[in-house]
């Protein structure tokens, strides 16, 4: 039986870039290959080109790298753009992605702004985003743009903790 696992978010740092680029390559490989878009160099370089430590959080489980996520101001000046949300395969499917996403959405709700993101066509991650209120905005043959508007009638929400518990492997 697996015990519960502690997780936390910490600010991104410049020295995180290579570990995150490698994580991106591992996590995205199957979906990119399915779409005929996997390129060993490009998959890492796209993260390097868009990396912004000031908007990135490193997800740690028991003190070790478990993932990353970036939430930067949207180019239109209203809202956030969520990107580079990757979890190591060993921590997927145990509630960590949901917990981290909810923490980020609390921040957006407090600012009363929408959040947009792009997910690959056919990616299992789309189900997570839709469960948390994201809806279809547009698509092309490779990407689907999703948006989550601020809940109109939401009561003020206290800030969620940036630490938590991860369900045991195989748990629901």
3D architecture notes:
The protein contains 4 helices and 8 strands; from the N terminus they run E-H-H-E-E-E-H-E-H-E-E-E. It has 172 residues and is an alpha+beta fold. It has an 8-stranded mixed beta sheet, with helices on both faces. Strand 4 (80-87), helix 3 (96-111) and strand 5 form a beta-alpha-beta unit. The longest helix is centred in the first third of the chain and has 18 residues, at 17-34.
Question: How are the SSEs ordered, and which strands pair?
Answer:
Layout: E1 5-11, H1 17-34, H2 40-50, E2 56-61, E3 64-73, E4 80-87, H3 96-111, E5 115-120, H4 125-131, E6 135-139, E7 143-148, E8 163-166
Helix pairs in contact: 1-2
The coarse overall form would be globular
Largest pleated sheet: 8 strands, mixed
Rounded Rg: 16 Å
Strand-residue fraction?
Answer: 25-35%
**Low-confidence spans: pLDDT under 50, at least 5 residues?**
153-161
Order of helices and strands: EHHEEEHEHEEE
Count of runs of 4 or more consecutive helical residues: 4
Number of strands: 8
Cα-to-Cα separation, first versus last residue: 14 Å
Helix-strand makeup class? alpha+beta
Give, in spatial order, the strands making up the sheet with the most strands.
6-7-5-4-3-2-1-8
Question: How much helix is in the residues?
Answer: 25-40%
**Average residue pLDDT:** 87
């Amino acid at each position: 039986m697996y015990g519960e696992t502690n997780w936390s978010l910490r600010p991104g740092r410049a020295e995180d870039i290579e570990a995150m680029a490698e994580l991106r390559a591992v996590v995205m490989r199957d979906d990119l290959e399915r779409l005929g878009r996997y390129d060993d160099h490009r998959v890492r370089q796209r993260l390097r080109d868009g990396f912004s430590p000031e908007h990135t959080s490193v997800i740690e489980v028991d003190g070790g790298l478990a993932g990353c996520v970036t939430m930067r101001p949207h180019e239109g000046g209203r809202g956030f753009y969520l990107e580079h949300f990757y979890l190591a395969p060993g921590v997927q499917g145990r509630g960590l992605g949901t917990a981290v996403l909810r923490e980020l959405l609390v921040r957006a709700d407090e600012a009363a702004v929408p959040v947009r993101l792009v997910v690959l066509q056919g990616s299992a991650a789309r189900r997570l985003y839709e469960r948390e209120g994201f809806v279809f905005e547009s698509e092309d043959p490779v990407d689907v743009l999703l948006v989550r508007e601020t809940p109109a009638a939401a009561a003020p929400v206290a800030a969620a903790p940036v630490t938590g518990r991860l369900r045991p492997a195989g748990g629901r």
